[in-house]
Design goal:
With about 260 residues, the chain is an all-alpha fold. The chain is built from nine helices and no strands.
């Protein structure tokens, strides 16, 4: 148990540092699921749980002042709780969203109370001409967020793993079966939200082309990606010729204008 807690600590530490490391996306569920799976000696299940969780969070992102559920804490704890208690992918997905939503309480405290105070302190330091200390204040905000979220994740796993396992075992089978069915809908919702943000008339033909390749032609992801790359190459050739023809036409028009 102690080794698992230490492992969760280091996984959380690295995952919560993803923005400090240059938006590396190392904290995404599909990545943390792999590391949690290695920690519990079940890499395959960890990857499956991480991939299933990633489908949910794929369409969730912060827009304006809205803060989406925390995929780092949700992905780590959901996968860890499920693996520790011998549960499957459906149980992991059931746990991921509630945990990710609850973790927003911690983030909101940082964003609403702590960080504004530190930002005002940085403004005062800048007014006093202490530019280096003002700049370091922003680094301290980053380090504080990493430390707080890492401690919260580790503490939640150390204290709540047995409680979560006992709670899930108390849920009637009919309820767990319903949750299992619902987990298959959540990835579809994630994709739907992603399509809602990226859909346009120019993108729609390629979306339906991919759907036909997967649903009717039964092609795998690699084959579908190759077809997409071929379509992109054909479009590049066509657009390149159109651009060259336009430039030639414009050049001829300039020559005729010069003759006049």
């Amino acid at each position: 148990m102690v080794g698992q807690v230490i492992g969760i600590f280091f996984i959380s530490l690295v995952a919560n540092s993803q923005y400090f490391l240059g938006t590396s996306f190392i904290g995404r569920p599909i990545v943390t699921g792999m590391f949690v799976g290695l920690l519990f000696g079940n890499l395959k299940e960890g990857l499956l749980m991480g991939a299933a969780s990633e489908l949910i969070f794929m369409g969730l992102m912060g827009i304006g002042a809205s803060v989406p559920p925390d995929e780092v804490i949700g992905g780590i704890l959901g996968t860890a709780f499920a693996l520790k208690n011998g549960l499957g992918v459906s149980a992991a997905i059931t746990l991921v969203l509630p945990i990710a939503s609850l973790s927003l309480i911690v983030k909101n405290i940082l964003y609403v109370l702590v960080f504004p105070a530190m930002t005002h302190r940085a403004d005062h330091l800048a007014d006093e001409g202490k530019i280096t200390r003002a700049g370091n204040m922003h680094l301290w905000m980053c380090f504080l967020q990493i430390a707080v979220l890492t401690i919260v994740t580790t503490f939640a796993f150390a204290v709540g793993s047995d409680a979560v396992g006992n709670l899930i075992k108390m849920i009637p089978k009919a309820v767990t079966d319903g949750l299992t069915i619902a987990t298959y809908i959540l990835p579809a919702i994630g994709f739907g939200m992603l399509i809602n943000m990226t859909y346009s008339k120019n993108v729609a033909p390629f979306f339906f082309l991919g759907f036909v390749c997967a649903a009717y032609l039964k092609l795998n992801t690699i084959a579908t990606a190759i077809i997409g790359a071929i379509c992109a190459a054909i479009m590049y050739i066509i657009f390149d010729k159109v651009r060259n023809n336009s430039e030639e036409t414009a050049a001829k028009g300039d020559e005729i204008y010069d003759d006049f």
